[in-house]
């Protein structure tokens, strides 16, 4: 993701756990400067990630979730922020 540190809002879409890990590793530091950061994920068991597994993973990286919304019948998203 280019220039995320200049963005007000960033939205990442993760297709699964490995993709989530790659996205977080590549972008997490740049996301610190955003007003809001979101991760979209397939809901209803269509993927090996969900709100709870994303929460666990971002918490391991010293971030936390602070919102959860439905985007569509197929997608949900969680908003997350740095703890420090």
Question: Spans of 5+ residues with little confidence (pLDDT < 50)?
Answer: none
Our estimate of the beta-strand percent is 25-35%
> Distance N terminus to C terminus?
22 Å
Q: Give me the secondary-structure category.
A: alpha+beta
Count of discrete structural domains: 1
SS element count, helices: 2
| Strands side by side in the biggest sheet | 1-2-4-3
Give the SSE order as H and E letters.
EHEHEE
Major sheet description: 4 strands, mixed
A few lines on this structure:
This protein is of the alpha+beta class and 84 residues long. It has helices at residues 17-31, 51-60; strands spanning 9-14, 36-42, 63-70, 75-82.
Describe the structure.
The structure is a single chain. The chain has two helices and four strands; from the N terminus they run βαβαββ. It has 84 residues and is α+β, with helices and mostly antiparallel strands. It has a single domain, classed as Translation Initiation Factor IF3. It has a four-stranded mixed beta sheet, with helices on one face. The mean pLDDT is 92.
